[in-house]
Structure formats: C-alpha cells, structure tokens
C-alpha cells in the first residue's frame, strides 16, 4: 500500500516544521479579526503554533501574532490561545496513549 504524504507546517514561534495535526491554526480575516481555527478551514491568512503550553506562552510574551499579522492583538486572545492549547494537550495525553 502506498504511504500517504503527511502535510507539514512551520510553527511560527519555534520555527520548526511539524505535522499539521500537531499544530493549531490562527487566522486573520479581511476585517483584521484574529481567531483560533480548530478546523483549519476558515478563510484568511493563517499561521500555526504548536500544541504546547510553553510555546503558546512564548507567543504571548513575544507578541508573535502581532508581528506575523502586522496588527495589535489584545492579550485576551493570547489567554484564549493558551487555554485552548492546554485543553488540546491534555486531550492528546489522555487519548493518544491508548
């Protein structure tokens, strides 16, 4: 059977290439609204961050998405990102070990 190609994306904080499924997409739409995109299908410019709480905290400290999207993003978005990544990391630890 033919091996399937695994889509890779670059983590905007660490600069590492990782499988797309191990990353969270953050998207900026035409109205300059930045939001999480768990489905990976929202229209707009996307950037990826690893499902790792430490990396999400680094993104907040460095204001990584402010630089990537060239707009000022409120701290509440970064808090939402950290909370989402923490939840996804906990789910992955629970269900991937089976």
Automatic annotation (TrEMBL):
Transmembrane segments: none annotated. Pfam families: YlxR (PF04296). InterPro entries: YlxR, YlxR-like_sf, YlxR_dom. Residues 9-82 form the YlxR domain. NCBIfam families: RNA_bind_RnpM. This is YlxR domain-containing protein.
């Amino acid at each position: 059977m033919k091996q399937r190609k695994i889509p890779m994306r670059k983590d905007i904080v660490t600069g590492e290439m990782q499988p797309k499924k191990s990353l969270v997409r953050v998207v900026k739409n035409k109205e300059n609204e930045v939001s999480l995109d768990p489905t990976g299908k929202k229209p707009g410019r996307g950037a990826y961050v690893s499902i790792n709480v430490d990396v999400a905290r680094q993104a907040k400290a460095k204001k990584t998405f402010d630089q990537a999207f060239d707009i000022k993003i409120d701290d509440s978005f970064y808090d939402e990102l950290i909370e989402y990544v923490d939840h996804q990391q906990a789910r992955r630890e629970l269900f991937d070990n089976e």
